[in-house]
Amino acid sequence: MASSTGEKGLIVSFGEMLIDFVPTVSGVSLSESPGFLKAPGGAPANVAIAVSRLGGRAAFVGKLGDDDFGHMLAGILRKNGVNDQGINFDKGARTALAFVTLRSDGEREFMFYRNPSADMLLRPDELNLELIRSAKVFHYGSISLITEPCRSAHMKAMEVAKEAGALLSYDPNLREPLWPSPEEARTQIMSIWDKADIIKVSDVELEFLTENKTMDDKTAMSLWHPNLKLLLVTLGEKGCTYFTKNFHGSVETYLVDAVDTTGAGDSFVGALLKQIVDDQSVLKDEARLRKVLRFANACGAITTTKKGAIPALPTDSEALSFLKDKKKRQTYLKFSKLCCTAPPC
């Protein structure tokens, strides 16, 4: 439900926004790629745009370089309906860049240019606290925890949002090459773990954080904390598993021809948050939560069918059309199976 004024709840996303350079050819190294496509990205920004594309209200808080790329990214946020009043520009540092290697299966490897980049230099005193306090959901990752002063800005923003009553959503979005060491990454990622109300990790992140190769419910539940309302583990083409205080289960995803998995997890998170921001009772109703997760899985699947993250994020109508089409196909397959197995008249 929206507010008494009819306005939808605001989802504020905090962290980095950057330029992804995606190779024009899959399955080759960066040096072997004949060219690259310039694609806006950065997990928190992807989530904000995912929410807005689906018809929700979103804002982004972060810092960009006062350069052509930075102003281009701010323009992309505005073009996609994302509130940009939380953006700062740094005159002394550039907007972050990432070169992304696409393997033949659509999975990625990253090489970053951040020495330092503008997003790393966001200070607590630069935060738009009024905007943060207006959030019903405050979403963040872990890259903003790597260095100061951005780490302090992250902690301040999270504290202000929590005090104002926002639901805290955390997707670590592990990028191991950016951390000094795996041990430091685990320590810092887990340092704010018990603050979040919703946590989403991938199967790769689950293995990294628990240092356990066994992907089962017991391993996932080792990450549970008493104040958590929902823990999600995304499993790529196998869908996702969900855990709450009262129930747990899994939801299958939709098979598509994956071209680039960049942004699929962000699309999933954006879809989830957009569906629950105005009715958090969904988190206590397994049937409704499963429906929300099927929608989120559909959005993630659609995002893998195009190169780049933001250009591939679906609209609400595209996601609903995709689900309708999949339902039709499933009905047809069930009917065909019944016809094939039915005894002759």
From TrEMBL:
> What protein is this chain from?
fructokinase
Q: Which PROSITE patterns match?
A: PFKB_KINASES_1, PFKB_KINASES_2
Q: Which GO terms describe its cellular component?
A: cytosol
- Give the record's pathway: Glycan biosynthesis; starch biosynthesis
Q: Which InterPro entries match?
A: Carboh/pur_kinase_PfkB_CS (IPR002173), PfkB_Carbo_kinase (IPR050306), PfkB_dom (IPR011611)
Task: Give the E.C. number(s).
Answer: 2.7.1.4
Q: Which UniProt keywords apply?
A: ATP-binding, Carbohydrate metabolism, Kinase, Nucleotide-binding, Transferase
